[in-house]
Amino acid sequence: MSSDTSSTQFDISIVGGGMVGAAIALALGQAGLQVALVERQLPADFIAGSLPDLRVSSINLASEAWLTELGAWQALSKMRLCPYQRLQAFEQPHSVVTFNAADIKRTHLGHIVENNLLQQALWQQFGSKVQLFCPASVTALEQNADSAVLTLDSGKQLCSKLVIAADGGNSQLRRLAGIGSNGWQYRQACLVALVNTPYPQQDVTWQQFTPTGPKAFLPLNGQQGSVVWYEEATKVKQLAALSPAQLTQQLINAFPPQIGEVQVVASSWFPLARMDANRYYAGRVVLAGDAAHTINPLAGQGVNLGFADAKLLTELIIDARRHNDDIGSVQLLQRYQRKRKPANLLMMSAMDGFYQVFGNDIAPLRTVRQLALSVASRSTLLKTLVARYAVGSE
Ligand SMILES: Cc1cc2nc3c(=O)[nH]c(=O)nc-3n(C[C@H](O)[C@H](O)[C@H](O)COP(=O)(O)OP(=O)(O)OC[C@H]3O[C@@H](n4cnc5c(N)ncnc54)[C@H](O)[C@@H]3O)c2cc1C
């Protein structure tokens, strides 16, 4: 790598150009701030007809609305995505609780999107509004009262009023800023498989709760879907080592009949971790997305929480700039932390409660969850509330 030890001044430097970091860069760039984005690898180009990314996310209506304001949703729609109108939860295949978009007078409850396409859609909007440093990574961070300086592996230095760490759950910037975290690795991991299904385009995402962990189906564009299988980590690793044909057989045996005669095309596995940063800022470094919190993906909320962080943080920064205030002030960062940390913690704890109640075979808890699903299936009000929560509006 050539060495460039020059120093450039920006308003904001962002480390990590995944879905959350890219959305922050775009929002601030569109508002006229001088933005640098440091990302270690270029997102893959979209090729029509290519296999879908194995990493997919359920994107709620609140995130969709913000991404539409940014102009990225329109670009994503031209690539590939799949709306779903129904969300089903059940323990036994015959006792399904269904949440409908129509119940809350919406056309859909959310979309399943491929992570790399959403990232690509955001990057396509950068134009000259965001200065990219990619591939690049950070070797040092220095801070003083007025600014923060990042040194890149090329030797180049980026000096800015605020550094935003959006570099994922294993955030290097969080460590460089001296922010500790707490959390744990769940005993379960999850296998994710891309499958061909025998059914025409599906509009339902479903999740079966079993004592060894949930089994979920997420529809993708056309006759494809994403299957998520939560199990003990050792079992998941064994499943991941199987050939597509062997895994297909295991899947059909273990999943409820709703899955149909699927065929596995590709698969991978992911460890599951919970991580909560002790604080969301230190000096002029602030955390957003998975760098601040990593949540059990059970209810598909991780990146939606990240977009909620990103939206609030960018609004506060844009407002401060409008009033000629310091865009990296303690007051601004405190306001961000005060609003987002409790909201993220609440969702993490709710997911852990879910994980405890639905992920085991202790008799009293079995009764609780059967009762919960039975009440939910009969109560229109409860179903409406759950559906509203799932779309991110309540
Ligand atoms: C199996 C699974 C299923 C999930 N399903 C859902 C779902 O349905 N809905 C949902 O909302 N969420 C879901 N999530 C969570 C979601 O994937 C994450 O919340 C989301 O990816 C976080 O985005 P991010 O941009 O904060 O971080 P990341 O996606 O981790 O992006 C970080 C970026 O930073 C870059 N980077 C890292 N370190 C450096 C460095 N030192 N220098 C430069 N660049 C760096 C990386 O290359 C990457 O581009 C799921 C997670 C898993 C594991």
UniProtKB/TrEMBL annotation:
Name under which the protein is recorded: FAD-dependent monooxygenase
The entry's family comment says:
Belongs to the UbiH/COQ6 family.
This protein's superkingdom?
Answer: Bacteria
Task: List where the protein spans the membrane.
Answer: 12-33
Q: Which UniProt keywords apply?
A: FAD, Flavoprotein, Membrane, Monooxygenase, Oxidoreductase, Transmembrane, Transmembrane helix
Q: Which residues form a coiled coil?
A: none
Question: Can the keyword Transmembrane helix be found in this entry's annotation?
Answer: yes
Naturally occurring in which organism (per UniProt): Rheinheimera muenzenbergensis
Q: Name one GO molecular function term.
A: monooxygenase activity
Pathway this chain belongs to: Cofactor biosynthesis; ubiquinone biosynthesis
| Transcription among keywords | no
**FAD-binding domain mapped to chain residues:** 11-343
Listed cofactors: FAD
